[in-house]
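TL;DR need structure tokens for one chain.
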Amino acid sequence: GEALRRLGEAGYRKQLDAAADLAAELGDGALMARALLATYRGTFTRAMHVDEAQVARLRRALELLGDGEPPLRAGLLALLGTELAWALDAGAGERASDAALALARDAGDRELLADVLAQRQWSVFHPIEERVATTRELAELAAESVRPALRFDAAGSALFTAARIGDRAAAAAALEVLRQLAAEIDQPLTHWMLAIREATAALIEGRVDHARAFVSSGSALAKQLGMPDAAAQLRVQRFWIDAEAEASDAARAALRAAVQIHRELLPFNWSSLAFRCVELGLASERDAVLASLAPGLATLRRGQTWLLSLCGTALAAADAGDVALCAWLHDPLAQHGDEHANFVFGTLGSVARYAGLTARALGRVDDAERWLTRAAERDGAFGAPAWRARALLDLAELRWERDGKLGAEARAGFDEARELSSRLGLAVVSERAERLRARWDRS
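>> reply
TL;DR here they are.
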């Protein structure tokens, strides 16, 4: 099974699952653990979902092991934390990862500790200080290792964390390491992981055509490898590409259809739909999704998509003029204002933007201007032109409403946003710029 995985054969996972199931029948926890640990593909088994069968196997192996074999137990717990990345109870994954980390530290095995920290990147996302510390420790351990696969995992963690804090140089360096290691390892799984990260980086930088190409190559590899979530990966990645490049009637029709069935989707998908409704000017659909979102915000899982959910909801609430919801959202957004709302397939840019939009809805114009200015600066410094353009349009609109005219500063920001969106082919941002210009011309 492990050899088939390295070769990129679609049957590798079935082979390993069969081995794990046979070991379970024999009551051999150690053998079952080794089979399960070999299934790790560098991330969770199913994007946006929990692989319940895999979770059940991991828990059975842990039961069979008991308190023996601490290194194997640590590995299983780390993998369990990864597989619970999309569980509605985010704490379940964190608890498994915490237990794995404690065992690894007690064992005093630096390679084991590195493996646990590498998988912890899928389990623990908040607070950002812990994320940064984990990424740094993993990098130090990986540098000692002779295993390129471990160094690849460490570089992937470094890329995600750098994007989260808006460190453009660190993100570029991590991506270059990933490219070098993918060429060195030269296995389909590694090339697949690289394609996902390349696509996300290209999308953040406004290189939409490049993002499409990377998504296409990654999807082909996912199908070759027989990944059960290949279609789901493709849908999510296309959604975020369309969020930049598609503002057509067909895009609006597809979004209306998605909103009609949004209650059938997992809740962490809803804020993305609300965000898209705002950008495409679908007010009634925005309100339908917002009505579903608001009641569950207080118990929203603090996982990979937590900031993404807060930001998407904030945009919808501000656009709808929901002052009460904006008041509730503003403080947590402000607390994370120096971060970026990214996840594995995309980003919503600087969190400061959404602190600014909620402040504006609350009538705190000066605060809103400060936050939106910070967002434009941070997105610009990070090399995220689509998100800088959005923040500049927010600022231009705010200043126009405050001053009753389009002053020189607002005009300069508007012109830059319009130029960026036109040059990069960002249809959604371009459409918004033209709507704003039409309003100003009428006034």
